[in-house]
Amino acid sequence: MTADPAGTDSRTSTPSGVIRVASVPAGHVYVRHIRPADGRDGVRLLVDPRPNGAPSTSQRWWPPVMLDPAWIEAHHDEFDVFHVHFGFDAQSADDLRKLVETLRRHGKPLVQTVHDLRNPHHPDPALHDAALDVLVPAADRLITLTPGAAAEIERRWGRTARVIPHPHVVEEPELSRPRPPHEGFVVGVHAKSIRPNMRPLPVIRALTRLLPELPGMRLRVDLHTETADPEAYAYAPEAVAGLRALADDGLIDLHVHDYFDDAELWDYLRSLDVSVLPYAFGTHSGWLEACHDLGTAVVVSDCGYYADQRPCHTFRMRDAGPDEASLTAAVRAAYEQRPAVRAAPAERAAERRAVAAAHRAVYEDVLR
């Protein structure tokens, strides 16, 4: 079998010098971009096994089949290194202990990239903390994305994590495409499906009070259709009603729609001067990276390590909502510092090559 465009391979034998990695997952954009664009890093990722019930044409990788110890028992001779990124949201601590025990029994080293020190999908951190309390001490090598996250890992577990930055999210030719001109100062809040770490309504209400003060400011709010569907898991009637009331008052331009595909998302981000991320907790952000790729300023709460990740403007977030003074100061700073810093495509390409080399070095090191 030949490697697919993402550089994945399910062969049971590989040429000398090629490191076979069981990556959890393999098909995610972050994982694809920690490989070089030409795929010539001597690393082969096993393809994501299809979860039960997923159609044969599906690219879905969750829930990750590779986290099942039975899968490792059946496929341990097909990989050299087991690398966990994310996807273990539903795994209990006991499940993960069995995973680690199975890897140890077969002599397979474990690498973990700590993307989330606080899971943005879990209102209660206990489940994710318990998972990290298994994986972080057990990993043979740890990677994370920012110095702040590495320092927290050192404090909590006494482990050293290698800091390797998040690679670009947007690909060419979109990465180099010029931003289209538009009038005014467009501030966007994409509430998505209002996951547990989001506080969109109080953030948006605070932003509406800036409208008379910043000439040309327009406030665009996006929301996924499922938040207005009583049959959907993401149904959020109070938030939807509050946003529709603001739209009826002419304070926001509200867009309710299905998930954007990549092209639609890049067009949306390019249409904004600022993307405000209403996060109450979290650690790192691929959305922030996409904004950096496209030249859209980011205003984000000071939780997690977003400010370590890429240039952004921060505000303080409290349990009930934002500290309004710091939020408005952050948006004003973005207003005054236009245009936003945009990633240079050549620098992003060089960074991706360096990121790939760093991962190859970690795999070589752990296999010694």
Automatic annotation (TrEMBL):
Assigned keywords, A-Z: Glycosyltransferase, Transferase
InterPro entries: Glyco_trans_4-like_N
Domain Glycosyltransferase subfamily 4-like N-terminal: 30-166
Gene3D superfamilies linked to this entry: Glycogen Phosphorylase B
Descriptive protein name: Glycosyltransferase subfamily 4-like N-terminal domain-containing protein
Gene source species: Streptomyces minutiscleroticus
